[in-house]
Design goal:
single chain; mainly alpha; membrane
Length: about 200
């Protein structure tokens, strides 16, 4: 199996998934299952491995998302019942104006998603988008797209993962630079290498 074949399989799988969901109106979960099986077959994966791989991959993903969605739904319900969501939406609309509601929700997504994971930020902010759409009478899609764009832009910036991995990366750098068998430090001296990384 060549690299080109695998790339074409991946691209084709994404396009097929979009077609099944958007044009064929197939349920997203069923479409994902069908595309996953097709991708496994075209990538040369043995038949007995496809089901196990799908189970492992989807189980790990859903295991993480289930906690995020459940806690986010509970938190969102609390914000809704206490009126906090409406207050947030009203305050943002006063600051930006009704005609710039899409800028407000996009900026909120960008700022709030910096320390959060993509899914967490969406679950927390989607209720604000609904509230803003209700107050302004704007089509919800015109607010959700900027929200996703802001969160996606924040996901491109090193955030939670970078903070979590920073100590490990620093330890790995020190290990390699302290190794006398590593060509750079072996030739230039360990003291210089230690000084370079602090």
């Amino acid at each position: 199996m060549t690299t080109l074949t695998l790339v074409l399989t991946a691209v084709g799988s994404v396009l097929l998934l979009l077609f099944l969901v958007m044009k064929a109106r197939m349920h997203a979960f069923l479409a994902l299952m069908v595309v996953s099986m097709g991708a496994g077959l075209f990538s040369g994966m043995p038949l007995d491995k496809i089901a196990a791989t799908m189970e492992k991959g989807m189980g790990g993903t859903l295991g993480f998302l289930a906690v995020v969605v459940a806690l986010g739904a509970m938190f969102g319900k609390i914000l809704h019942e206490t009126g906090a969501v409406d207050q947030i939406a009203v305050k943002m609309l006063k600051s930006f104006g009704h005609s710039r509601a899409h800028y407000a929700i996009g900026l909120a997504g960008l700022v709030c998603a910096l320390p959060l994971f993509f899914e967490v930020a969406i679950v927390l902010l989607i209720s604000v988008a609904f509230s803003m759409a209700r107050h302004t009478g704007t089509n919800l899609v015109k607010l959700v797209i900027p929200l996703f764009a802001g969160v996606a832009a924040a996901a491109c910036v090193p955030g939670a993962w970078a903070s979590a991995n920073a100590p490990r990366i620093a330890d790995e750098r020190r290990f390699w630079l302290d190794d006398p068998d590593w060509p750079v430090c072996g030739n230039s001296g360990n003291d210089y290498c230690r000084a370079a990384v602090g």
